[in-house]
Specification:
The chain has 360 residues and is α+β, with helices and mostly antiparallel strands. The chain has helices at 58-62, 98-111, 120-123, 127-135, 209-214, 218-225, 283-299, and strands spanning 24-26, 29-30, 76-79, 86-89, 113-116, 155-160, 189-196, 204-208, 228-232, 251-255, 257-259, 266-268, 275-278, 304-307, 314-318, 322-326, 337-342, 350-351. The chain contains seven helices and 18 strands.
Length: 360
């Protein structure tokens, strides 16, 4: 591969903001931004297509542990809803052993999403540590268009500040999705944290695709288990902030209802951002069914959890059993929101209907 050419995001680095307000070093002097080394750059490298691999889920190893939740023994855990989300304090993710990381993967699979507070130890260890962490859970997905820290393309960065444009074309900034569902082997357990954030706003919504399926009638559930849908990466990559598409987009067919490889739970697996069509249906039929499911996901507030960010928080979720959406409601604050995502891939989605055959 030729020497990497990178482009740093074309905007000034504003001062440190952990709660929306720049910290003052002294009167008239602002401290340098603590995470300036993690500002996004846009390499010109081209990546080959992703290759299939055999995935062994980390959570499966924890099933044989005497206490699969032992990593939380000294933590304070508050459940956000009866069946989705937990808020954890008193657990240092950076200090987890391999066995404890396996237990973490199992807990995330069971609860859908976990938020861990006070994780400065992890966040300050830097991008080399982030990638080492992520590889415990699977091969790291490299975003084909987004910015990343210099020399670390496996870390996907989100970045908005006072100079950024916000989407005002739609009534809402809510876009429910499961990350990169168009890949043959989409992400499983995902880690995300903010390095800088607005004083208020910029929350993240999560929805249980397990409950979204379970609340449908048995007749509808049985019907959905027989269906496959096309997921496409073409639309999302047409407009890129860095101006470079580093891997060609693909379309993939997945089951509409998938089974988690460790918990065995069935989950709805369609999302408005990437799902395009039900295989075998006429366009009008497919649109009718998919729009019904999208509406069901969006309106089912009793299956959702809202994560309110605090400085030094980290959120881990299982893309196989949840959908999520960022909320861009902070544009008037002119504040910076700078986050990093570590995205291991998992297995090819397993159909809930055991007799379903997927194309090679």
């Amino acid at each position: 591969m030729s020497t990497t050419i990178t482009t740093t995001i074309p905007q000034a680095v504003s001062p440190l903001v952990l709660n929306g307000t720049p910290k003052k070093k002294s009167e008239g002097t602002e401290e340098p931004y603590r995470y300036a080394h993690l500002m996004p750059v846009y390499s010109k490298d081209k990546y080959p297509p992703l290759q299939p691999f055999e995935h062994v889920d980390a959570g499966s190893r924890a099933l044989s542990h005497p206490n699969p939740r032992a990593f939380l023994d000294s933590a304070n855990v508050v459940e956000l809803t009866p069946w989705l989300g937990s808020d954890v304090r008193g657990c240092n993710l950076a200090a987890l052993t391999p066995d404890q990381k396996d237990e973490l993967a199992l807990e995330v699979a069971r609860r859908g999403v976990l938020v861990f507070r006070d994780q400065q130890d992890f966040i300050d260890r830097g991008p080399g540590f982030y990638t080492e962490w992520g590889r415990h859970f699977g091969p790291l997905h490299i975003h084909p268009t987004s910015g990343h820290p210099e020399g670390h393309p496996e870390i996907h960065l989100v970045f908005k500040d006072a100079n950024s444009r916000f989407n005002t074309d739609n009534l809402s900034t809510t876009v429910w999705h499961s990350d990169f569902s168009f890949e043959l082997q989409p992400p499983g357990l995902t880690t995300f944290f903010l390095l800088s954030q607005p004083k208020v706003g910029g929350d993240t919504l999560y929805s249980s695709q397990v409950k979204n399926l379970q609340t449908l009638s048995p007749v509808m559930q049985d019907f959905l288990r027989t269906l496959k849908a096309t997921h496409s990466g073409f639309d999302s990559l047409r407009s890129t902030k860095g101006g470079v598409v580093r891997r060609d987009p693909i379309e993939t067919v997945h089951p509409v209802v998938r089974r988690h490889p460790v918990t065995g739970e069935e989950a709805l697996y369609v999302n408005k951002q990437f799902t395009r069509r039900i295989v075998g249906m006429k366009r009008e039929e497919s649109d009718l069914l998919l729009n019904f499911l999208y509406d069901h996901i969006a309106k089912s507030g009793d299956h959702q959890a809202r994560i309110k960010w605090e400085p030094m928080s980290m959120v881990l979720w299982d893309n196989r059993v949840t959908a999520h959406s960022a909320i861009s409601d902070y544009s008037q604050q002119k504040a910076r929101r700078h986050g990093a995502r570590i995205t291991p891939q998992a297995e090819r989605p397993i159909p809930a209907l055991t007799s379903m055959k997927m194309e090679d």
